[in-house]
Amino acid sequence: MFPAASSLVPSLRSPQSQNDQHDQSRDRSAGRPSPRPAAKRDAFFDNAKYLAIVLVAMGHSWEPLKGDSRVLQAAYMLVYTFHMPAFIVISGFFSRSFDASPGRLKRLVTGVAVPYVVFESAYSLFKRVVDHDPQAAITLLDPYYLTWFLCALFIWRLTTPIWKMVRFPLPLALAMAMLASLTPNLGGDLDLQRVLQFLPYFVLGLCLRPEHFRMVRRRSVRIAAVPVFVFSLAFCWWAVPKMDTGWLYHRSSAQELGLPWWVGPAMQLALFGCSLLLTACFFSWVPGRTMWFTALGAGTLCGYLLHGFLIKTADYRGWFDHTAVHRPLGEIAVTVAVAAAVTLLCTEPVRRTFRFVMEPKMDWAFKRDAAELARERETREKQETREKQETGKKLETQRAKADA
């Protein structure tokens, strides 16, 4: 989900080591700007991102299997209620520093827009070749499968300065989501229904502070989360034949789901409350210490974008049609296999392999920032002045020695 890997979720800084301080003092003495200190990632957020991506992949694998099992349908409904909201809240929390400056806009383009263009095209070509579908067209206006999140994140990030400026950002975002749910003519371009209906979770992340995450990680909350999840799973089991799972995708209006217009806003409020409750319970169970999977949190963009090819290959080739995978042991085997696959896709070797797409260096495509050029020119002039002074001192010393 939760687009960029490291570019989407900045890290917290760590104290400088003695070597870093030595290097910085040496750079200052040489007239060069000091490098920024190495960043230290927060284990809690990396753990949360990894676990959320695993749930996303598991949910995608359950979709073609859930029709034969009411329990699996209930688990699917439960997971879809909170896994994307949790990831979007984290994305919003780490977007608080976005200020539309040239440097941040450049990272937004290279870390979100470019991967969207590449993978939107790749998934369309993949469908045309593997599924033998000549009608599969490449279009950047209609996000295919899971690329909608990159499109939405790009739009949300661009609007961040607005949400930081208005007085009541969350109520306003929630009102926009409610209005979208009763607007069937909104259209499918850029998946605007999802962009607007998921918007409150992103804005909520912008409004949160670190202490809010510490509050939900208290022991009392972790204990209370157990009965909440048990009750939620039982409720989902009861609601399977009664509720359209289309509400959980946040991509349709009430009229498109065959219901009166007023149901849309009501469902948006109800789902927002349920999703926040389950998201808080999910965060309460996320470990805050370094685990064996913590480092994988930096590779969630790879896991998110690449696991779709595995799911779609199985779908196009009819692997989900085998009777064995529709039995309880088969469903468990598929779940474990997909969780293992997305884990491998989040590893460092995969990140390095696809870095040219996920985190491309595109300095050639951007103009140099005027302020940066001025700083470099000022630094260069100071360096030249210092060198001239040192040269003059050396010449004076040499003359003094010669006269002596």
Descriptive account of the structure:
There is one protein chain. This protein is mainly alpha-helical and 404 residues long. The chain is built from 19 helices and two strands. It has helices spanning 5-8, 18-29, 43-62, 70-93, 102-130, 148-158, 160-165, 169-180, 192-197, 199-207, 210-216, 219-239, 246-249, 263-285, 300-316, 328-345, 348-353, 355-358, 370-403, and strands spanning 12-13, 39-40. Strands 1-2 form a two-stranded antiparallel ribbon. Helix 3 (43-62) packs antiparallel against helix 4 (70-93), helix 4 (70-93) packs across helix 14 and helix 15 packs across helix 16. The N and C termini lie far apart (76 Å). The model is unreliable at 1-38 (pLDDT under 50).
Structural class: mainly alpha
Mean pLDDT reading: 86
Based on CA inertia axes, which overall geometry fits?
elongated
Helix content percent band: 55-70%
Widest sheet: strand ordering: 1-2
Order of helical and strand elements: HEHEHHHHHHHHHHHHHHHHH
Radius of gyration: 26 Å
Q: How many helices in DSSP terms?
A: 19
Low-confidence stretches: 1-38
Primary descriptors:
single chain, 404 residues, mainly alpha, 2 domains, two-stranded antiparallel ribbon, 19 helices, 66% helix, 1% strand, disordered N terminus
Task: Sum this structure up briefly.
The chain is mostly helical and 404 residues long. It is 66% helix and 1% strand.
